Amino acid sequence: MDTTHSPFLTGALTWLGNGTVPDRCDVCGHEWTMESGEAVDAIAVSAERCAAILADRDGMAAAADGGWNATAYVWHLTDLANSWSERWVQLSHDPGSPLAGWDPDGLAAARNYRNLPTLPALWAFERATTTFVDLSREIDHATPFEHGDWGPGTVADGLCWLAHEYVHHQLDVDARAR
Length: 178
Ligand SMILES: [Zn+2]
Fold this sequence. Notes:
Layout: H1 7-16, H2 36-44, H3 46-54, H4 70-93, E1 98-99, H5 104-111, H6 118-138, E2 144-147, E3 151-154, H7 155-176
Parallel strand pairs: 1-2
Antiparallel strand pairs: 2-3
Helix pairs in contact: 2-6, 2-7, 3-6, 3-7, 4-6, 4-7
The structure holds zinc ion.
The site of zinc ion has 6 residues, from helix 7.
């Protein structure tokens, strides 16, 4: 266990690892010590990559495991980008602000991700990601926050967490598109 992680990142990784804190993701290879500028770069190229993956494939085909289809993951990343953009706007104004947590599965059900089409998903994703990347290049990465579920962290921690969401879910998009 890397004890240098903030409470936020430790909480996030414990949630992801079902109680353990991994050094890197076994599936996508993301390193939890990734530098925050590198994390922003990884996020920045994601919209183009997802668009390329879904260019000539069906993103709405039902997933074999009964989980989200490929396009649903694009909607999830879009909602993550929007949510964290809103958080960066608040933190730019008031560092240390509390960040309210939200339930991704509850949001997916409320928005009906599985039946939302791919074209607007890619449109919304590109816009949301561009906005998030722009804000992430402006804000001081040492800015602190207080996450509702996982406790204190910094913008750098949030970016490392988000970069994993982006990189990992690109694999999900690729695996589930037909
Ligand atoms: Zn991963």
